[in-house]
Amino acid sequence: MAIFSKSNVPQFSVDVYQNEYLPEGGREVNAVVTVTATGGGTIGSAVAAPHLYSPGEGPSAAVVLMVDCSGSMDYPPTKMRNARDATAAAIDTLRDGVHFAVVAGTHLAREVYPGDGRLAVAGPDTREQAKQALRKLSAGGGTAIGTWLRRADRLLASADVAIQHGILLTDGRNEHESPEDLKAALDACAGRFTCDARGVGTDWEVKEVTGIASALLGTADIVADPAGLAADFTRMMETAMGKEVADVSLRLWTPAGATVTFVKQVAPTVEELTGRRTEAGPRAGDYPLGSWGDESRDYHLCVAVPPAAVGREMLAARVSLVIPQPGGSVQSLGAQGLVRAVWTDDLAASTSINPQVAHYTGQAELAEVIQEGLDLRKVGDMDGATAKLGRAVQLASASGNADTAKLLAKVVDVVDAATGTVRLKTKVEEADEMTLETRSTKTVRVKK
Length: 448
Prior knowledge:
There is one protein chain. By secondary structure, this protein is α+β, with helices and mostly antiparallel strands. Helices cover 31% and strands 31% of the residues. The protein is built from eleven helices and 22 strands. The chain has helices at residues 78-93, 124-134, 145-157, 179-189, 206-215, 229-241, 347-351, 355-378, 382-399, 402-408, 430-438; strands spanning 11-17, 21-22, 28-38, 42-43, 46-47, 61-68, 99-105, 109-113, 120-121, 163-170, 194-200, 220-223, 245-253, 259-267, 271-272, 278-279, 284-292, 295-304, 313-324, 330-343, 412-416, 421-424. The strands form five sheets. Strands 6, 7, 8, 9, 10, 11 and 12 form a seven-stranded mixed beta sheet that branches. It has a six-stranded mixed beta sheet with strand order 2-20-19-13-17-16.
């Protein structure tokens, strides 16, 4: 393990968990890589109290809050009021000196505060001014989320800060621009800022909201009851204020003849990273990991190596962490891990599955079968849905993922969790189904 140390930023470490033994002629090497940052601002879900930094202290950051103000936010009227209160609570959580702005999103993107393409700097006066501006927010118009994201991108780009983050709230489907327009906006914003997305109520599209968060390396969730928005926005902003290092990438080097099969984040959520690789020199590629505070995440790597005879061994991959710098260079975070391959005729050694790899393979399958089961249920294939969701119950039970098991129990009646025997419920609350779909990628960590 190598550790990177520098004042005012977290220390990064890399740990590799694998069974390096392969049978004669074996080619597939699997490993779980745990990346841990310590010494940042977040510990679990809590952070140090806001306003403890004076302007100029702590990590430089900018945040744009995008609030859905389309006509549907007036049904019921409490939804718009809750959104205003939640945004005010998030503004109260801003650390002094952080740049921020509020955007009202409809079929247009209107700057509510401070306006004129600027960002305000958080302090007692600007927080109060922003909250006064929020009181004037009203609902009316359509929904064009790509337009909101592009406006946030322009605002964030005006600040010379390390951490650039968005918080997006919507209550409806993206009906006033095409899916292609939204994808183009996400492509344009990816790598420029991170973004958390929330759907309030039950009239929004889960795949749209989760797709936004996925593309912009943020979190997605449902707030079924608008009364819960203030608490959720406060937690999101607390986490954003705890970020210390932006634009971290996992660099994966492989030797000649070896190829990367896949790279995916597996904790705290499942996130496919394989297609996000950017080339980084001979036989090396970078995979974006977003912004970091005081936290730990797990990644599953699979590398195909050339087959070899018993007794041979090789370095299958080298994992390191880097941050891109102006001019195309990178700053190394010092942390490094090695993935090895050793060929053996010991059957017990070569057939043993590493517990971390086995656990996260199951968690990735759990997320997949939940999505497949819910999709089949929506199109009326009840037998297929029952089979997939039964498998999900079995996996959740076996891995100790109690939170997902509870969500599944609101969609199916569990007859036998161990065998995955279930019956679809005849009546399911829409909020329960959307919550299961939205949170299907959340994983439980393996005990190491």
